Amino acid sequence: MKKKVVVIGGGFAGLQFIRNLKPNMFDVMLIDKLNHHQFQPLFYQVATSQIEPSSISFPLRKIFQKRKDVLIRLAKVLAIDNESKQVKTSIGSFDYDYLVIATGCRTNYFGNEAIRKHTYRLKTTYQAINIRNSILENFEKLL
User: Fold this and answer.
1) pLDDT score at 51
2) What residues in the chain have per-residue pLDDT under 70?
3) In sequence order, what are the residues at sequence separation of 6 or more whose Cβ sits closer than 8 angstroms to the Cβ of residue 16?
4) Which residues form the domain of 98?
5) pTM, to two decimals
């Protein structure tokens, strides 16, 4: 029986980890809130209307369509129980033998509430679209 590997996070680290696993050696489950990978280095181009968001979003299922050993679950992780080796999610619990947590990072404002309140984050495609919309709205106000 193959060991179960659960990977939380469909960003660069999670995808690269799965790609480096020998195919069919493990039963792999990728859990992410989104059904697509977002290519972060080009968020600024979405924010400045140079490219469309669809140009930097890639369906996770398509990325792993040739890997029959990889299952993808769209869910929010609620808790991890290390003793029972279970990941509890918004769609149920999943057992694992090995767990990889590759959830990325958060913006650190170092306790400065003013900066947090008056800046835009650029960690997702949706945030890039919000920045683009804000730029366009401000240009329209000027005209």
Assistant:
1) 97
2) none
3) none
4) 4-142
5) 0.89
